[in-house]
């Protein structure tokens, strides 16, 4: 399209057309005109342009980041996928873990435990300042969550940390310290301690559903299992009812997942049972899905395949498969040019969102 043609179109038609274009194309079209550049860079346009197709993001055994794009599921035994290595700057960062994603932004740590906010699509990156409330490394544990608070138009990082019971400084301390980071304010602050015991199961990141971050925890006293939800707006914890058939003292050994925007609870083992909360916050809406015949172990549900409510993407450290709940069968995912050993960190959607958009930069 020529510059003159683009400028002659009514603004509302131009905007409507641009919304259907992929992020990479929009990046090129910024140079068409000042008007197009202004439109594509507008925060409101960015918010409404997010493509909801989920791509996988993973960390390789050699500390690199890769994205995996699954191609549409056809009636074949194998499903093809395309792998792409992400490169943000030189020298390259040696990545360690994916902590969460929201609106196309991904929270990740490097091998030195530094925290970064990245956009895998635009390959932008910003480093998050270290929390002044961080407990000493090697004597404590920490888990994170990441999400977006629509009430303040702000991205929030939540940190829950606690002392290792073998530490020399506070061996009897069982406090669960909660801190939050505001991207808009570029600052950390302490909140009241969590009343729940997060030192159970795995050191998992918070699962984001309905603007709440979720963890499997134990209540105090008594240590019965529960799902807790941390509201990004209210900065408070509440409880989510477990499925009736889940044994209360064993629930913490399951995994929380998100499938199609819904909260899920997965029990890896015999039967690989998956519960999905069809209506958020309603305990009676938990629906059980039995996953049979999956040979990879350990396995974890990652997302729903594009355009399907019946194809669940499952993964372990070396393999990705798609399980159809109607046919009760698996199809292998063939990753072209992909790494051999990896850990699936989660998913992200393509977005123009900039990691530094809301950050208040320090004055020089």
From TrEMBL:
Listed InterPro entries: F-box-assoc_dom_typ1 (IPR006527), F-box-assoc_interact_dom (IPR017451), F-box-like_dom_sf (IPR036047), F-box_dom (IPR001810), Gal_Oxase/kelch_b-propeller (IPR011043), SCF_F-box_component (IPR050796)
Gene3D superfamilies the UniProt entry points to: 1.20.1280.50
Domain F-box: 3-49
NCBIfam families cross-referenced by the UniProt entry: F_box_assoc_1 (TIGR01640)
Listed name of the protein: F-box domain-containing protein
Organism: Mikania micrantha (bitter vine)
